[in-house]
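Internal tracking record. Fields below are filled automatically when a chain is submitted to the structure queue. Please do not edit lines marked as system-generated. If the sequence contains nonstandard residues, flag them in the REMARKS field before resubmitting.
Queue: standard
Priority: normal
Entity type: single polypeptide chain
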Amino acid sequence: MKKAFPGSFVTLEGPEGAGKTTQVKLLAKELDSLGIKHVVTRDPGGTPLGRKIRRILLSNENTVVPMAELLLYQADRAQHVEELIRPSLEDGCIVLCDRYTDSTVAYQGYGRNIDLALIDQLNQMSTGGLRPDLTILFDIESGDGLSRLHPGGHDRMEKEAIDFHHRVRGGYHKLAEAEPQRWRILDASKALSVVQDEFRRILVESLGKKHPLAPLLKDS
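SYSTEM-GENERATED OUTPUT FOLLOWS
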């Protein structure tokens, strides 16, 4: 049985260039102004150890074979859950995490064609079974998302062939279809303000009974 925490765990997923990071930063400012306890973090890189692992994983200077890539993500996640995510949930925070286990299924499973059952087993081990209460897919066509990226700023994952990114996006849709009670799909190709309004609405509808989020919709 899933353990109930005072806080809520929200994960943000999506293809490259979907704008998740920008959107969560904007939302965090509003949560700050409302005095709502929250933590914004990312996977990989949410802890001091994780930041070192992130540099290894995303640097273009490194050649990382698929299985090593998978295990590095899991090592980051194990540290992340125990050091930051679980304690924050126990403290009553809304935890907003930019990527989590579903990214590994989409990128290393559907993208790299690593066995999905193996990934599920490793995800379970690295997280101790901790699953999100809500996952929002910031969805955008792969080519459109990649075109948003700064030409000189592409990391190792962003530089993968377009077919890889198509497989990743397709994987996300399969995950969302399999678990519609947890997933919400947001059209990230729309204007920034429109996406932010929809992001707020989803949070209020999904978490509003547990957290005082109604003021987020005051200007919508």
